Amino acid sequence: MEDASARWVDDRPEVTDPVLLVGLSGWIDASGAAKAAIDAITADAESSPIVEFDDDTYIDYRARRPTMELREGLHSVLHWERILLSAGTDQTGQDVLVLHGPEPDMAWHRFTRIVGDIAVELGVRHMAHLGAYPFAVPHTRPARLSISSPSQDVLARVPFLRSTIDVPAGAAAALEREMHDRGIPSIGIWAQVPHYITSMPYPSASVALLDGTREATGLVFEAAELRAEVISQGRRLDQLVANNPEHESMLHQLEQLYDAGDDVADIDAGGPSLEYRSGDELAEEVEKFLRDQD
């Protein structure tokens, strides 16, 4: 790696056939599900930084201002967001690299080239990035996953949903192409989050991303606390819905669509229909619920 915008934090680590996982905040991540999954991964892997990217090169601090800790007038700490590459191992001892932090605001070509150079230097065998998006699905069913990849071979290996759509791309999508061009299999794993709860954490989607990562790459992470939250949050949501017959009706329609295997909710066609007004109203109740908890 020969670029002043990135530096080794310590000596170059000795890793064997590592998998590179990418979780850059700032792109599409409904409920923060991908970030929660990446945080669980870095904790389980007991990872530590090995590469630090220069924030003045990649971060626009007018858009991502540092956080100042002010305690009774005393300016004690200024927290700067930085992009880091960390190294650790999964539950089976496999080496894993995690690229995490804010999505770069600029110099994407330079950024992806450097990450590609590091991946080749460290012998990365696979790359996967995580994301989540809002969708008309019920919280009473397992979170579904969809996939993106530049490789037909990679697409054929996993049974995740496949979409046909033109959308704005994130830096992780640029990394997909970079790795593919360097002969490193790459994949994007996306979790669907119920559209009415995107304002609150949704551990079910985070766990689905961890399980999808295992299926796609073989990496195993326990994430015990995150998995325990799935049941408790599901019960809270059930209670919220049960208080309103209209919300119960909306949930039933979503369950019908999900069970029928519909990947896109058809609002105007015959058969099960979706009343988005109910979803908006339920979202407002969820937000009120969170304020009451605070």
Automatic annotation (TrEMBL):
<dbReference type="InterPro" id="IPR038389">
    <property type="entry name" value="PSMG2_sf"/>
</dbReference>
<dbReference type="InterPro" id="IPR008492">
    <property type="entry name" value="Rv2714-like"/>
</dbReference>
<dbReference type="GO" id="GO:0000502">
    <property type="term" value="C:proteasome complex"/>
</dbReference>
<keyword id="KW-0647">Proteasome</keyword>
<dbReference type="Pfam" id="PF09754">
    <property type="entry name" value="PAC2"/>
</dbReference>
<dbReference type="InterPro" id="IPR019151">
    <property type="entry name" value="Proteasome_assmbl_chaperone_2"/>
</dbReference>
<protein>
    <submittedName>
        <fullName>Proteasome assembly chaperone (PAC2) family protein</fullName>
    </submittedName>
</protein>
